[in-house]
Amino acid sequence: MKSIEIKTAQNVILQYELADLRDRILAFLIDFVVVVIVIFLLASAGFGTMFQSDTAAAMYAIFLLCIFIFYSLAFETLNKGRSLGKMALRIQVIKAEGGTASFSDYAARWVFRMVDVYFSFGGIASILIASSAKAQRIGDIVANTAVVKQVPRMDLNLKDVLAIQTQESYKPEFVQAKQLAENDVLLIKATLDRYRRFTNPAHRDAIIMLADRIQEVLGVSNITAENRVQFLQTVLRDYVVLTR
What we know:
Blueprint: E1 3-7, E2 13-17, H1 21-46, H2 54-78, H3 84-89, E3 91-95, H4 103-119, H5 123-131, H6 138-143, E4 145-149, H7 158-162, H8 182-197, H9 201-218, H10 228-243
Antiparallel strand pairs: 1-2, 3-4
Helix pairs in contact: 1-2, 2-4, 4-5, 8-9, 8-10, 9-10
């Protein structure tokens, strides 16, 4: 499964699973069916009953056409990159380097949707999504966006944390660690694991930012710059001992 790494404002690296071709096709089909149903209901209610002139009927037809054309642009812009179909599949559009896409990004995706999806009957979009490294169609490449699963992938759960070996005689150094939430502990473990696997400036910055934040939460102020990794390891171990 393809994935993408996003660096947050706190310099923490999150890994998101990219939406695959199946998810994106299903999301498109859901959106298409919803729009068709809405237009059909509005057309059934409007034509023949609401309008007495051809001009009014023509204006109403244009209104219905606009719903079909602008549906995806409006929903993604107003709903943080999620149409109804994307919400159902729990996927959304984000900037490829992280953060929320802007209106111009959604507009670029929408414009090239005509080429990617409609004019080629989805052929161009399918080929590019299946073959490109970031599963991007032309609109995504132009806007520098990606469609991802909404929940970042950490490849771990609380069982991984509880599997850390401890000794019965171990005395916790930071008793405040028990006040941390499960998600906080999982984030500490994920950040440490990624730092060990990929020791690069981005992951070192993530360690620094996370250690500083955990110190603030726990009310600790005597941790040196050189001991941040050891501090996070100790907090993780203390949490396991104190919550078992």
